[in-house]
Amino acid sequence: MDLRALRCFVAVAEEGHFGRAAARLHLAQPPLSRRIRDLEADLGCRLFDRIPTGARLTPAGEVLLAEAHDLLERAERARERVRGVGADRVLVIGVVAGAGLDAGPAALAALRRSHPGLRVRLREAPVTDPSAGLRERRVDLALTRLPFDTAGLTVRPLAAEPVVATVPADDPLARRDRIHLTELAGRPRFRLPARTDAQWRAYWLAAEDDAPGPVVASVEECLHSVLWENAVGLLPAGAAVRHVREGIAFVPVDGHPPSRIVAARPTECTDPLVDALVQALTTAFRPTTAPQH
User: Fold this and answer.
1) Is 216 left (phi over 0), alpha (psi -120 to 50) or beta?
2) Going by C-beta distance under 8 Å and a sequence separation of 6 or more, which residues neighbour residue 114?
3) Comparing C-alpha atoms, which of 130, 5, 144, 91 is closest to residue 273?
């Protein structure tokens, strides 16, 4: 499948308009349209319906869009691996729900003192994938959170982070300094899809599995569900800093274990550079102890 045609397809799908997609790709519209037609001919189905406002995905197009992002990301990953042979190394780090972002820069700064040519690319994983892309070999190392199924992975504990309740700003709970987990009982919760790791889902839902509420796949969707649907739910405490916005309050929660931040990698991984990064992260997360007097 032609990767250039796939990139054109994704641009049209995301823009919903051939003209805007052509401008985004710095490409004239006729060549863009030809690539879409060639792709449709190759697949034997129509990918877009023309509508007055632009273009709308057909059911076949919806299926391809889900696959296209994965195919393009894998192609980019392969390109980086090939280019990295004999050149400066690129480490790809997967991150879930902001895990490790505070200590990450200090760890990388320390590592670059011994590996000055090191380059790093962060991949933000959806909250539906606690392995942050490790299972699909999209990343070299994951900064993630327990609990989830870690079979086949080596996990290094780094830190513990409390959780907060994410509630509408006009909710009575928003005026409290702290709440107990049980005070969220009976409220619509934002929930993860059924296909998500069972341990991970149970930890973040912290309620009966059939609790009502919208299904989400990202932190942004969690926040939107609070704003638009009056849902509530749990997020890491760092969300209160990284995702401040009008209409949402973050309240510390008692009665629920903290989120355990870890570095994870495939058990068979023997890459010394990944070893060095894990050690740098461990040092960066290590709390400093003030002198006792």
Assistant:
1) beta
2) 276
3) 91
Two structure tokens written together for 107: 């760890």
- What CATH number labels 3-78? 1.10.10.10
At 287, the pLDDT band (50, 70, 90 cuts) reads low
Copy the structure tokens of residue 18: 């051939």
How many degrees, rounded to 5, is the angle at CA 31 between CA 26 and CA 35? Answer: 110
Cis bond upstream, residue 147 (ω within 30): yes
28-38 residue pLDDT tens = 899 999 999 99
88-160+259-285: same fold as 3-78? no
Q: H-helix or E-strand containing 13?
A: helix 3-15
Token digits for 146? 């327990």
The pLDDT value given to residue 86: 41
Instruction: Please provide the CATH number assigned to the domain covering 163-254.
Output: 3.40.190.10
pLDDT beyond 70 at 291? no
CATH match for 88-160+259-285 among 3.30.420.140, 3.30.160.620, 2.40.50.140, 3.40.190.10: 3.40.190.10
* AA letter at 292: Q
